[in-house]
Design a protein that fits this description.
Length: 190
């Protein structure tokens, strides 16, 4: 597997805020575009008043882990797989469909985060934040309906381990780690 393209992922939070990190493009297949971010790669977050930098996919000790992400075409979600030492094997950001402009994938977070734990338990975090964002007008009714539908679909796929949520994601991560690509700094992002 040759990794040649470097891209950035920009997560927009309403009403203000963004998070940005870099990734290597692994492949594009029937599920979408697969991206790899090595351990130690930098994440920059801004909330309109503060800017912070940390490592991508930090564990409880603040150490970044390698991740693989899947950006499916026109879908209201982006999935992230973690190495076996993480408490979750996969998490999903429910979001507007990601758009690629030049070298940056951009999406708007819709707050809901379905995930599957190592024990197979499936749950969705941040329902309160989702409802608060709706009440504040940051998520409109159409976006809310798409987000709820996407969450129900993802929860089902996670529970039933339907690809790409069975072995595909972790297999991509295992292969990506073997590539030994250097961590992704942020200085190339504008």
């Amino acid at each position: 597997m040759d990794v040649v393209d470097v891209v950035f992922i920009k997560k927009v939070k309403r009403p203000v805020g963004i998070g940005v990190w870099g990734a290597y493009v692994l492949a594009t297949d029937e599920f979408g575009t697969w991206l790899y971010t090595p351990a130690g790669s930098r994440y920059r977050g801004e909330d309109g008043q503060h800017t912070g930098v940390c490592e991508v996919a930090q564990d409880s000790d603040g150490i970044g882990r390698p991740i693989v992400q899947l950006i499916p075409p026109r879908a209201w979600w982006i999935a992230t797989w973690y190495p076996p030492d993480a408490d979750r094997d996969v998490t999903v950001d429910i979001c507007t469909p990601a758009v690629l402009v030049e070298r940056t994938w951009t999406y708007t977070d819709m707050e809901l985060d379905p995930w599957r734990g190592r024990d197979g338990t499936v749950t969705t975090d941040d329902w309160r934040e989702f409802q608060a964002a709706r009440a504040a007008g940051w998520i409109n009714e159409s976006e809310a309906a798409e987000s709820i539908a996407a969450t129900k679909t993802i929860e089902r796929l996670l529970r039933l381990r339907i690809e790409p949520f069975d072995r595909k994601g972790i297999a991509k991560l295992t292969c990506a780690i073997q590539l030994a690509q250097p961590r992704r700094p942020l200085h190339h992002w504008a």
